[in-house]
Amino acid sequence: MLKKLSTALAAAVLSAGLVAAGALPAGATPVAVPAAKSTPKVTISKIKNISAGDDYEATIKPSVKAYGNAKITSKKLTVSQGGKTLAYKVKQASLEPGKYTVTTYAKYKTWTTKKIRLKAGTKQLVSDGSKLVRMNCKVSDVETHWMNGFEIELMFLSCTGKFDGVYKARAGYFPYTDDNIYYGVAGENLWGDSFPSQPRIRPIIGGKFTTNVYPLERKVYRTLKKAETIEKRIYSKEKTKTLRQTVTVTE
Q1: pTM for the whole thing?
Q2: Which sequence spans correspond to the domains of the chain?
Q3: pLDDT value at residue 37
Q4: Cβ neighbourhood burial of 51 (10 Å; 0-12, 13-18, 19+)
Q5: Contacting residues for 155 by C-beta, under 8 A, at least 6 apart
Q6: What are the angstrom distances between the C-alpha of 170 and each of 63, 114, 134, 202?
Q7: How many Å from the N-terminal Cα to the C-terminal Cα in the chain?
Q8: Which of 53, 159, 177, 179 lies 20 to 30 Å from 27, alpha-carbon distance?
Q9: DSSP label at 20?
Q10: 35-115+233-250 is classed in which CATH architecture?
């Protein structure tokens, strides 16, 4: 029940923002000598012949691996039989007994690392929303709201950490009302995607907790107090590797 409510209400109730963020200015000086690297390699393994299951079908998937300084960006299949294409660049295919021509497509990028010298005062990206950031959060305000007939205590959060400014977020709490108790949500929290651990907190102003956060609404930066040397990945253009084979599905 709570999962359904979260889907319906989270978009309307929760949002996040960041105060005092900025663009990355000039101040990064690349060092000509790249860091140690590992030879990139991408392999496509042949799909083994397979037997159909109880539903008279067998599912095949691409088998692709990356080694060293290589990163897989896409792996798909094209399946044909008797000159007719049955599936075109799909992630997997369900096949009935028979013999098929299967082509695996692997797209990938290779990368090298370079040492970058960052000057003091440079704003360095901490997370663009894809990386978790450790934050110390405090409930700064609480408001009562009614959404779709449910009473919710909306908590305004102020979060700080090893980044500039204050990250503003929201969370919900279902108080112990008759309706909330009846639907089994009383005492539960309502979180958005920014807080994957979904900590249990109460709507008490001044309450504190520490958790990992995806800053999905704003990029998070930190201003360097002194010069630092970091390593940065430099990616190649996307490359493609293919393997064509015959796959037999038996009864």
Answers
A1: 0.59
A2: 2-29+124-222, 35-115+233-250
A3: 55
A4: exposed
A5: 139, 141, 142, 170, 171, 172, 173, 201, 203
A6: 42, 39, 16, 13
A7: 42
A8: 159
A9: S
A10: Sandwich (2.60)
